[in-house]
Each structure stands twice: as C-alpha cells, then as structure tokens.
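ENTRY TYPE: paired fold submission
RECORD: A
CONTENT: sequence, then structure tokens
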Amino acid sequence: MNQPTCQKVQDQEARRRAAAILAQSRQEEPAMKRYAHPIPCWSGYPWPAPTPAGEGTDRILEELARQNQLLLDLLGAVNALTAATLSIRSRFVGEP
C-alpha cells in the first residue's frame, strides 16, 4: 500500500520541479518580437485595374503562394513548440 502514496509524492515533486524550471525559463527569455505583416485586401478597390490578360491572375497566384508559405512557417513553429512541450513534460513528469 505504500507504493501509490510514494508514486503520488514522486509525481508531485516532478510537477513542482517542472513548474520551477518553466518559471525560471520564462524569466530568462527575451520578449518575443512581433512583426506586423499586412494581408493585402483586394476588395478595397471599386473595380479591378485594367491589366493585360493574365497579369492579374499571376499576381494573385504569387500572393496566394506567399500566404501559403507563411501558413507553412506558422505550422512548423507550432509543431516545434508542441514537440518541445511534450519533451519537457515527458522528462519531468515521467510520461512516455
């Protein structure tokens, strides 16, 4: 009967150490830099500007490709943060 109580104490100690490490790392990290990235709004024009055939479509496709790359970069950052969080959790809490 001593095993569950001992396991609870170990879990609580691991959680306390993990919280202390996280609190310490939050204090040492510099503030996140925020970059404003305007998203072009095509609906702001009352009518499309006259362009040679195909040029407008090329421009739209370029903007869509750029936005797609930004979304992929964000997804990569979220995946990296998730992996780091799970790694820390498994090390300090003892979960696989």
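RECORD: B
CONTENT: sequence, then structure tokens
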Amino acid sequence: METKILKVVRQGEAFSVQSAKAETGTIQKCNIVLRELGGKFENEYVCAMLGNLAACRFYEGDVVVATLRFSTHEYQGQTFQEVLATDIVKLK
C-alpha cells in the first residue's frame, strides 16, 4: 500500500456489486480518478472505493490524502491491475 497526496479529477456515482464477503451479498462501490500533484500530465489512478467509503463525495480539484492498494488478477487468460482506495481524507 502507498499513501499519497493527490488531486481529485472526477468521481462517479456509487452502485451495488455482488460480494461474497458482505453479509447482505452486495456492497457499494464507487470509482474515483486521482492525479498526482504537479499538473495535468502527472500520473493518474482510477481507483475503486468500497463500502462506507463509496458513500463519501469528493469534488474536482479537492486535494486528498489517499491510501492506495495495488493488485493484479487474471481473468480468462488476461491480467488486470486494480487500484483500491482503502482510505481517503480531504485536506483543507
């Protein structure tokens, strides 16, 4: 995991997804795009926020401290990278 200071580019709406780990069988998920500080050509991360974090709203330009977990998985012979935001706090 890495903790970074990032700027919010955009955030989508929360939606329900199937989850074997959740008691109800579903969990809330929301995607957010975060960019490293320095300009519009810096590294960007498309991250998933799960559970209670998915209900949090951040807005374009917000500066946040985010803990990101990077992982990969294989599906039908292809490898995918996932970035999960495990914690996000807006800086004032």
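NOTES ON RECORD B: Strands lie at 2-11, 15-18, 26-36, 44-50, 63-75, 78-90. The mean pLDDT is 94.
STATUS: closed
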